[in-house]
Design brief:
It is globular, with a radius of gyration of 22 Å. The chain is mainly α and 439 residues long.
C-alpha cells in the first residue's frame, strides 16, 4: 500500500516553530533579555498540539489516543528518564563542589602564557564532564576575563574560547541533553555516537588550539595564581566518562556517578543524606521542561506521522537527494535550520529526529552517523546565533560590549568543526578514525 503523504500534516509543527520564533523575535526587538527563552518551549509545543486537534480529521478520542501513544513511546520514555537521571547527577555533583573542583583543577594546570588555548581546553573538559555548555560558560567566563585583562589579551577572544570549548565538550558529553536526544531518536548507544563524533570534533579542536596558541598569546604573562581544589571531587565525572566509554548501561552509569557524589558530599560535609535526597529531587525538577517537551514532541510527531507529514517530507527530499552523501547534507541542514529557528539545540534535534531516522534508513546512512550529524550541526549554530543562551550568557558578563558579533566572530571552533564535518561527508574525513575507534 502507498503510504499516506500530506504537506498539511506539517502545519502543527509549523505552528510550534512559528509561535516560538515569533515571540522570541518580538521580545528580542523590544530589548528583553534572554528573549527566546521567555516563552517556555513546552507551551509553544502544546499550542502546536492544540492546532493539530483542529486541523486533523477524525474524532477527538482517536486523535487523543494517537497523541498519547506517541507521548508514551518506549524511546521517548527512555529518553525522558535519562534526562531525569542526568539532572540528578549534575545537581548532586555540583552541590558537593564537583564543578568548582573541575574548574579550579583546570585553571591550576593551565600555563599562564597559553591562557586562550588553555581556557578552550578547560571549557571543553568541563562541558564534557558536566554535559552543559551554558553552565560551563557561567562558571568559566568570569575567570577567563580576569586572566585576559591580566595578560593583555583580547577579552572577546578568551570569552569566545570559553563558548567554543563548552560547545565542544557538550557535543561529546555522555550526559548532555543533546547527546541523549540524538542517540535515543536514532536508537544508538552513546558510546558509539561519541566515537563517531570523536573523528570530527577532535581534529577541529586541535586546529582551534593551534590557532589560539599562535594568535592568543598574552602581551604580558599573567602571574600564576593558586586555585584550591579537592581531586576527590573530580572522581564522579571521571567515573561517568570512563564507564560510558566502556559501554555500561546509561542508567547504571548515572546512578553510579550520583551515588559516588552523594558519598563524597556527605563525607566532606557538603550536605547530609537528607540534603542529598533534596538535591536529587532538584535535579529531577530541573529537567522538567525538557522532560515535558520530549513527551509533547513525541506525541505531536506521532500525530504528524500518522497524517502523512513525515512521508510528505521524505517524498520532497527524495527529489533533491541522490544518495548517502546528499542525505547526510540534508540531515545536517535540517538540524541547523531547526536550531536557528528555535535557538535550542535539543529542541531542534527532537524536531528533526523522526525525519532524520527515515532518511538514515532509506539512504543507508549509519544511525550513529545520523545521531552525530544532528548533534554536531545543532551545536554549531547554537554556539554562534546571537540570541542563543550561550552567547547571551557570555556577553552579559562582558563590560562595554558593543555587539555580540565581537565575540561570535572569534568563535573559531564552531566554524572549523562545520568545515571538518562537511569534509567528512564529501571526502570521508573522520570516518576512518571512527572505524578505528570502533574496532
Amino acid at each position: 500500500m502507498e503510504k499516506k503523504a500530506s504537506g498539511k500534516a506539517l502545519l502543527p509543527l509549523g505552528v510550534f516553530v512559528g509561535v516560538y520564533l515569533a515571540v522570541g523575535t518580538v521580545l528580542q526587538l523590544q530589548g528583553v533579555e534572554m528573549a527566546f527563552y521567555q516563552l517556555p518551549a513546552p507551551v509553544a509545543a502544546l499550542i502546536g498540539v492544540i492546532s493539530a486537534f483542529f486541523i486533523f480529521k477524525g474524532s477527538i478520542n482517536d486523535k487523543l489516543s494517537t497523541f498519547l501513544r506517541g507521548c508514551g513511546n518506549e524511546d521517548i520514555m527512555i529518553m525522558c528518564f535519562v534526562f531525569l537521571f542526568a539532572g540528578a547527577f549534575t545537581t548532586v555533583s555540583s552541590a558537593m563542589g564537583g564543578v568548582d573542583a573541575v574548574v579550579n583543577l583546570g585553571m591550576t594546570v593551565i600555563p599562564p602564557q597559553f591562557v586562550a588555548a588553555g581556557i578552550f581546553v578547560i571549557s571543553g573538559l568541563i562541558g564534557l564532564a558536566t554535559g552543559t555548555s551554558v553552565g560551563t560558560v557561567v562558571a568559566v567566563v568570569p575567570i577567563g576575563i580576569g586572566l585576559a585583562e591580566a595578560g593583555g589579551i583580547n577579552p572577546y577572544l578568551v570569552v569566545a574560547s570559553v563558548i567554543s570549548g563548552s560547545m565542544f565538550g557538550d557535543n561529546l558529553s555522555m550526559i548532555s541533553d543533546t547527546t541523549i536526544a540524538a542517540t535515543r531518536s536514532q536508537g544508538v548507544e552513546m558510546k558509539d555516537k561519541f566515537r563517531t563524533n570523536f573523528g570530527i570534533a577532535v581534529p577541529a579542536a586541535l586546529i582551534t588550539v593551534v590557532l589560539l596558541l599562535i594568535f592568543g598569546r598574552p602581551e604580558v604573562v599573567p602571574e600564576v595564581q593558586s586555585y584550591s581544589f579537592d581531586i576527590v571531587k573530580v572522581l564522579p565525572y571521571l567515573f561517568v566518562l570512563v564507564a560510558s566509554l566502556i559501554g555500561w548501561n546509561v542508567f547504571l552509569v548515572l546512578t553510579g556517578g550520583t551515588l559516588i557524589s552523594v558519598v563524597i558530599g556527605v563525607a566532606t560535609g557538603a550536605f547530609t543524606l537528607l540534603g542529598a535526597a533534596g538535591n536529587v529531587y532538584n535535579g529531577f525538577t530541573g529537567m522538567f521542561e525538557i522532560f515535558l517537551l520530549s513527551m509533547i514532541m513525541g506525541g505531536l510527531a506521532t500525530m504528524v506521522q500518522e497524517e502523512g507529514g513525515i512521508e510528505w517530507i521524505l517524498q520532497k527530499v527524495k527529489t533533491l537527494i541522490k544518495g548517502r552523501k546528499s542525505a547526510e547534507v540534508g540531515i545536517a541542514a535540517m538540524a541547523s535550520l531547526a536550531d536557528v529557528a528555535t535557538a535550542n539545540n535539543t529542541v531542534s534535534i527532537l524536531i528533526c529526529g523522526k525525519v532524520a531516522k527515515e532518511l538514515s534508513e532509506n539512504y543507508d546512512v549509519d544511525p550513529k552517523r545520523t545521531a552525530s550529524l544532528l548533534d554536531i550541526f545543532a551545536c554549531i549554530f547554537q554556539g554562534i546565533i546571537p540570541y542563543g543562551a550561550q552567547i547571551l550568557m557570555a556577553c552579559a558578563l562582558i563590560d562595554n560590549l558593543n555587539s555580540p558579533f565581537q565575540v561570535i566572530s572569534l568563535c573559531w571552533y564552531q566554524y572549523i568543526v562545520a568545515i571538518v564535518a562537511l569534509l567528512s561527508i564529501f571526502v570521508g574525513f573522520g570516518k576512518k578514525k571512527e572505524a578505528k575507534l570502533g574496532s
